[in-house]
TrEMBL record:
Boundaries of every Peptidase M28 domain copy: 249-436
E.C. number(s) listed in UniProt: 3.4.-.-
Annotated InterPro entries: M28_fam, PA_dom_sf, PA_domain, Peptidase_M28
Extent of the signal sequence: 1-22
UniProt similarity note: Belongs to the peptidase M28 family. M28B subfamily.
Lineage: Eukaryota, Fungi, Dikarya, Ascomycota, Pezizomycotina
Top-level enzyme category: hydrolase
UniProt keywords, alphabetically: Hydrolase, Metal-binding, Protease, Signal, Zinc
Official protein name in the record: Peptide hydrolase
Keyword Secreted attributed: no
Organism: Podospora appendiculata
Single GO molecular function: metal ion binding
Length: 486
């Protein structure tokens, strides 16, 4: 009797539990409630320790990135296998790293120096030791940007001292090589040691001489001495590598929902080489993982939810651009909205939304939620500096959240972008705002404008060529938005 009663009760419990999980309908409020600071913290602590175990970085082309992919797969592919379909998209891109750069002045002094992306290596271990040759300055057309500016200059066997600015650094280095220079000492246009990193472009590998970018003040002291006929011998040493490396986007979508109506969310999974990338973009990565952990519990949502963790964003939006460019028109049509979450936990946050012209209710949902939570929402330019560029090229409606760099994140792209570099209130409220917007669009596309497809792709034989050309063009745009070429 007692046993029977227990049995009956347990069957009832089991049945109602099963019914609940089979029919528990998704609502925006439930996903919002599922998001907790503790769980976001747990993910970021794991990403931080992944970086610690792998030389302090989770950058594209390093073991720390591979470990980050495995961490996402442990949830998406292993634990949530019943609810999520997950695949890994392989791609390769040129990995670039300046391992050491050194400029030694005429008195043997070490000079502050910055290396551009894709800087060619000098001979090692000695570097280039050569006399400096000064070159004319032109602040209108740019210094040493045009072939005629090099006319009559024989830089053979020398290091050319050239002013930065106006045209691409690579253009100056190409002309320097043509005029016999062994390398270029490039000086910045503004005084001080805050020198931005340009890219020379992966497409210029093999065409350029090595360079080091030094402060204006240092060059200003050398130029009158050169003008007076003094010989200044300088050393430039660049130890750099550039090689193709494999990398991976992780794409995971709910089994539930109409495959023709997809709500997509993206965050980049890589960091810069300099640090563990906990705000940039561990914060977005954690948000997506927690949102996935929530939505997989529910049923009854008509639209499919797709999460993407992008590869090699910091190398120039490479993974997301590759994904977007390899979508067919039909597949692009199925993506009804794209949300991008890159840096959503800056220690001194702003609450900045950027959106496409056809963002409609998508960005309004983020705005209303944050405003209701007492945050001062601002709007940023759609400046092409994160993974939405490929989706923007496809005309897909987009909204993004961003909590700022610079004074908002003093550890931006540095080793100190670690667990201490997060505003826990900001990451939590932003993930909840993302939850509300996701939950709403998963149920209804009311107020979501249609995609603005670009001009129809060329048909027939030329189509493939066009496709790869356009991937190269978009990738170049992404690279230049991360690293200006000038
Ligand atoms: Zn980022």
């Amino acid at each position: 009797m007692q046993l029977n009663a227990w049995k009956a009760a347990s069957i009832l419990l089991f049945t109602s539990g099963w019914l609940a999980s089979a029919t528990n309908p998704l609502t925006p409020a439930k996903i919002v409630a599922d998001i907790t600071t503790d769980e976001l913290y747990r993910v970021l602590r794991s990403l931080n320790s992944i970086a610690k175990k792998n030389g302090g970085t989770r950058a594209f082309g390093t073991p720390g990135y591979k470990a980050s992919v495995d961490y996402v797969l442990e949830r998406a592919q292993t634990r949530f296998a019943t609810e999520m379909d997950t695949h890994v998209q392989n791609l390769t891109f040129t990995y670039d790293e300046t391992r050491e750069i050194k400029v030694t002045g005429p008195a043997g002094e070490n000079v502050f120096v910055v290396s551009p992306q894709y800087n060619p290596a000098t001979p090692l271990p000695g570097g280039i030791v050569a006399p400096l040759i000064n070159t004319p300055v032109n602040d209108v057309t740019g210094s040493m940007c045009l072939p005629e500016q090099w006319e009559g200059i024989d830089a053979t066997g020398k290091l050319a001292l050239v002013k930065r600015g106006i045209c691409a650094v690579s253009a100056k280095l190409k002309l320097a090589k043509a005029h016999g220079a062994l390398g270029v000492i490039l000086y910045n246009q503004t005084p001080g040691e805050v020198i931005s990193t340009p890219t020379l472009g992966a497409e210029n590998i093999g065409l350029l001489v090595p360079t080091g970018i030094i402060p204006l003040d240092v060059a200003s002291a050398w130029i009158p001495r050169l003008a007076a006929g003094e010989t200044l011998t300088v050393k430039l040493l660049v130890d750099a590598i550039a090689e193709e490396r494999e990398t991976w986007n992780v794409i995971s979508e709910t089994k539930a929902g109409d495959p023709n109506k997809v709500i997509m969310l993206g965050a980049h999974l890589d960091s810069v080489l300099a640090g563990p990338g906990i705000n940039d973009d561990g914060s977005g990565t954690a948000a997506l993982l927690e949102l996935m952990g929530s939505v997989k519990k529910y049923r009854g949502f008509p639209h499919k939810i797709r999460f993407a963790w992008w590869a090699a964003e910091e190398a120039g939006l490479i993974g997301s651009t590759y994904y977007a460019e390899h979508l067919s028109e039909a597949e692009a049509d199925k993506i009804k909205f794209y949300f991008n979450y890159d840096m959503i936990g800056s220690p001194y946050p702003i609450f900045e939304i950027s959106k496409s012209d056809n963002s409609g209710v998508g960005s309004e949902l983020l705005d209303k939620f944050l405003t209701a939570a007492g945050k001062n929402v601002t709007y940023g330019e759609f400046d092409g500096r994160s993974d939405y560029v490929g989706f923007s090229e496809l005309g897909i409606p987009i909204a993004t959240l961003f909590t700022g760099e610079g004074e908002n994140d003093p550890c931006y792209h540095q080793a100190c972008d670690n667990l201490d570099n997060i505003n826990w209130d900001a990451i939590t409220i932003n993930t909840k705002a993302a939850a509300n917007a996701l939950g709403t669009l998963a149920l209804s596309l009311d107020g979501v404008p249609a995609r603005n497809p670009p001009a129809p792709a060329l048909r027939g034989r030329s189509k493939l060529h066009h496709k790869s050309q356009s991937w190269a063009t978009v990738a170049q745009k992404g690279i230049e938005s991360k690293f200006p070429s000038v």
